[in-house]
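Quick start: what a row looks like.
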Amino acid sequence: MHTLPQPDRDAVAASAGLVRRIQQEIDLNGGWLPFSRYMDLALYAPGTGYYTGGSRKFGADGDFVTAPEISPFFAAALAQQIADLLPLTGGDLYEFGAGSGRLAADLLLALEAGQALPQRYRIIEVSGELAARQRECIEQAAPHLLPRVEWLEALPACMDGVLIGNEVLDAMPCELILWDAQGTPLQRGVIRAGDGFDWQDRPLTDGEALARAEALAPGAEYLSELPLAASAFVRTLGERLERGAVLLLDYGFPESEFYHPQRRAGTLMCHYRHHTHPDPFSWPGLTDITCHVDFTAIAQAGLDAGLDLAGYTSQAMFLMNCGIAQLLGRLDPEDIANYLPQSTAVQKLLSPAEMGELFKVIGFSRGLDAGWRGFAVGDRRRNL
């Protein structure tokens, strides 16, 4: 049994309220919920879900650290690619799930330095609490650029510009599937158990999920995820993007690695105060729940929506192609107090033992005649 830090009294009360909310929905649904619905409520239930409540998620005081918090050179390198693409579009830059706002602030400053500011920086954010924090971050870092920023609660019907999402797909609800001893796919769901929850498997009846699970057939006694919501999200982007580019960064694998015979327990992970653990029933609403991204499914979803697949590679290769080493090289190496921590941070973004290999970048486009510098070397589309 994992040991996690104890939340304070208010956080315990908030989590207990969400537990009751989920239990009520279980009762209304005949005593069982698919895990995807449990994950949706645990993360996004209004006012009490992980991303819609008031707990701090990002950075040293939160539950995990994302690339923008690690180094401003992450955004500076991405800005090189975005600056190439924006003039070929209507000029708007869209970010999905902008987290702490750090990436938005750093991108705006980097694009300003390169004289490539977007007409508008439009953040699609379902959490009012996070939107407020993003506004505060941008106001502190780049107050003169705040008038360019808009917050939207839903995707626009039509988009013309560059669309980016860093660690967005992994937080979308996934289905949990158990292939039993005969290789028959079962849908793993959640039931009430005392004051908490437990697992229960049922026959898989959803047509799309069943067809996908039967096609994968990874073997007997195999547990994994079907990230159907992430694929649906990419299809929606494709349907609404009139012209432009989509750039998605996240941790994951192509299908052959995602459903590898040795990955028999899936990729479901939880994050709480910089502890990683496997129990999504621990402190609902206070704990992030994620699954890795099946980039083969994401690529297929984009193609199904009529997008062009621009490239797919590791985060390290993409950032190197975008000149992160040259950007770091502009610092004075004699200024040890500044150069050493910045260099160490960039190394974490690039190292195969850190974020460089596990994190991938996939790009799509529509109506653009553009070379993508991020995929110029090391494009792995053939592996999808």
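That is the whole record. DSSP finds 13 helices and 16 strands in the chain. Confidence is low (pLDDT under 50) at residues 57-63.
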